[in-house]
Each structure stands twice: as structure tokens, then as C-alpha cells.
Amino acid sequence: MKSDYLIILLFFLSLCSFSQDITKFAKEEVITDLITLRESLKDAHYNLYVYTSEQEFDAVYLEVKASVIKDSLNLLEATSIFQRLISVVNNGHTEIDFPGQSYGQYAYAGGTVFPLELAFEDDKSLVRKNFSNNDLIKIGSEILSINGVAISEVLSKIYPQISAERPYFKNAKLEMYSFPRLYWQVFGKQDDFEVEIRSNETVKKYSIKAVSLIEGYEMKRTEVLNAKKTLRFFEESAYLNPGDFGGEETKYREFIDSAFVKIKERKSKNLIVDLRNNRGGDNSFSDYLVSYFADKPFKWNSSFTLKSSKFLKEHVRVNNDTTDVYFQQILTHKNGEIYEYEFAAHPPKSIQKRFVGEVYVLVNRQSHSQSAVTAAQIQDYRFGTIVGEETGDYPSLYASQFQYVLSNTGIAVKVSKGYIIRVNGSTKEEGVIPDIFIKDHLLDEDDEILDGLLKRIDQKD
After folding, report:
1. How far is Cα 182 from Cα 174, in angstroms, rounded to an integer?
2. Same domain assignment for residues 312 and 404
3. Would you tell me which of 72, 101, 213, 384 could form a disulfide with 107, CB atoms 3.0–4.6 Å apart?
4. CB-hemisphere CA count at 13 Å for 212?
């Protein structure tokens, strides 16, 4: 499962540092791509109407199509139009990414953004970072309105650009992409803002100015999805962050091998695996990690089914190795047919290499895709104890993305062609529920989940 949610600003700046967003598409080109988008979703998605009705999908399509009234549209406008249709599917892995190229071009042209980054907790929109010129706005303050528009209405206009199964996950993705970026996408450039803020039961209004997108915002913050390969030790506990489940697999395995050698040498009694703020990736990475503390052969799902389709077959013939068994099966099954694809059980490491102490796995609402599936896998096999808060992503989910590009606009579309059911067979529409719940406040630099677990371990010892 691939999950490339994170947009790196500097990458897009390197692509488009020489120009502004001047690409234009004729109205007819955009509508043609919109029709292609609709037809590809109907043909290739595993179960298009699982979270929305056919009537609602068709109604949104007609509404979106009717909104295309300009003779020409730029890349940002086209992207926003297509996102409005694909997001109504309410499937986090069926999506069109944040318009990073347009954002990069806007940044390099001297763009500005809203100066407050937000976190969403307990049905409140809270200030996570304040990059404005007004230090009276405190971290944790609740934003009630922006320029006279209630924050609930602001969010209702942003949500159609985000694909997710439920509001909890939409808010997690909004935190991930960041509120200032999506506010710019929906409302455009604004130089001045009046914000209404509640702090300590007192409501006040503040006037603040936009900040430079690059120097005033991007260069001062860190991405929410920031998992990095890390090994640390806390007395008798080893802390391991494996990083995302992607990249160069050989180097990933070398890091995991080396980490567990050191953990063995330290004779650590507890292993803490951190899957927070993790974008996910591929099961070949996560299974290799789990093999170091699994005590029996294991799988990462109880069922993995795929849907073959005419659109998918055309994509596979052009883009994939058709001698590979996985892609061969797509081509040999009938259009519209759903079939099981079997994964072999993964063996645990030998007892000499394996960690045999207590295992704890940290998760939060930013544990995405394969990281959520892996946490569920560990929980269901009882390989470890899950600690933190509910994940945004479901562990039984419509995923196994494939990506294609709309022919006129060149906009990439990701579609879920498969359905994965977690190891215990539950298809309940919820994230991974921790065995030990500890709230992860993104508002501060404190690590409530890790610190809380270490205190529990100390008390237990």
C-alpha cells in the first residue's frame, strides 16, 4: 500500500522556480478530463458507493460540471474542480493530492499565507503554531472566525478538497497538509485577516497580516508526517522509530538489522516502536520489522481482494510488468470481477535474533495507511500493546492504489482497486483503537504519548 500524502515544498520549487502558474486549459479540456475521472472511478474503483450513494455521486458530478463556466482554467482551478468530485467518494486512498506544483509556483512568485497553523481536537480549531506579528495569540487558543466567516463554514468549504472516510480523518489530513496551504487553495491570496479567538473563556478579535509563504511559514515549520529512522534507549527500554515503510528497501533492512543487534547488546527489556506521524508505505517493509518480535508466522491481512476492470487492465499493460503474477491476475480476470490475492505468511526471525521482551507500539491520528494496518496486525496477533490515540485511517480499508494521469491537464489521480481486511477479520469502521489510550496534543512540543508510556513502564517495574 502506497500513501504519498506529503508534499515537499522545495521539490515543487525546483520544478517550477522559473514561472508562475500560467498554464491554461480550455473549458472543453477540463470537462473532458472530468468525464474521464467520473468514468474511471465508476469502472476501476473497488466499491465506489460504499460510503456515498450513486445518486449523491452523480449529483455532485453534475454540480461540479455546471461550475465550469470560464473559457479557460489554470492548473490550480482544474485540480480543485476534480478534487470536489473525487472527495465525495469518501475514501482516503481515492484522491487527488494537494496542488503542490501550483503552490510552489505561487511561493516562488512571492506568495503569502494565513499565519496560524491549526490542530483539530475535541471539535475545536486550535492554534498550533503562531507565525503572525501578534504574540497575544497564544498556542491552544480556539479560532472562532476568520474575516467574519465562522470557522465551521471555512472548514465546510475546505473539506471538499480532501478525500477521507470521516470527519476525524479529514481533520487529520487537514493538519497534515496544513490549514494555511488549504486556506490559500480555497480562498486565494489575502493580505489581511481579522480573527476571532477564544482564550481562557474570553473572546477577542485580532488583526493580523499574511506572512511570506517561504520565509515566514515553510522555513519555520516542520511537516506533521516526519517519521525518521531513530534508535534511542531509556534505561531498560529501547525506542525504535523505523521511519516510513518505503524508500530504498536494502538500506531500510540494514537499519532494522543494526537496531536489533544493538537492542540485543543492551539487553533491553522493553521495545517501543513508534508508528506516529508515519505516512505508511509497503508491507514488505513493515513485515520485516514485525519479524523481529513476532513469535510465529504472520500475515498483514486476513483478506486481500482486488477488482479487475477494463480501465485498470489498460493501465497495467502500459505501466507494469505483465510477467509478474500479481499483474497477470489482473489481466486474466474478467472486467468487474473481484478476486482474492494470497500473500504467503512471513516467518519470524530466529530466536537468536528476535526480541523477546515487552513490545509497545505508539500510534496517533497521523498513523496513516500501512502504519495503521501494521499496528492492527501487531494488536491482532498480540505481538505487542498499542499505545496512543485512535488512528485516522481504518485498518480494514479500500486501498491498493493505482495512479493514472488525466490526459488534458496532466493531473494525477489515485484510485483504490483493492480491499484489505485486518488480521482479526473486523470490518468495523473505526481506526486502530489503542490498548492504552494517551491523548497526543499536536499543540505543543511535549511528547505526551512516549512520556506517558515511560512513566507507566517505570511504575510497572
Report:
1. 8
2. yes
3. 213
4. 8
The residue assigned the cell 480491499 is 419
pLDDT digits (tens, 9 = 90+) for 409-438: 999 999 999 999 999 999 999 999 999 999
Rg (CA), the chain: 23
Fill in the DSSP letter of residue 251: H
Convert the pLDDT of each residue in 32-44 to its tens digit.
Answer: 999 999 999 999 9
Which secondary structure element, helix H or strand E, spans residue 239, and what is its range?
Answer: strand 237-241
Instruction: Output the domain CATH number for residue 277.
Output: 3.90.226.10
Residues 154 and 261 in one domain: no
Q: What is residue 461's predicted lDDT score, i.e. its pLDDT?
A: 66
Interacting residues of 8 by C-beta distance below 8 A, sequence separation 6+: 100, 223
1 domain residue, yes or no: no
Domain boundary among 92, 108, 124: 108
**How far is residue 68 from each of residues 71, 220, 270, measured CA to CA in Å?**
8, 37, 58
Q: Does residue 4 sit within a domain?
A: no
Q: Residue 213's domain spans which residues?
A: 112-220
- Among the candidates 108, 127, 144, a domain finishes at 108
Question: Quick one: 198 and 279 in the same domain?
Answer: no
Residues 6+ apart with CB under 8 A from 111: 184, 189, 212, 213
Q: What is the pTM of this model?
A: 0.94
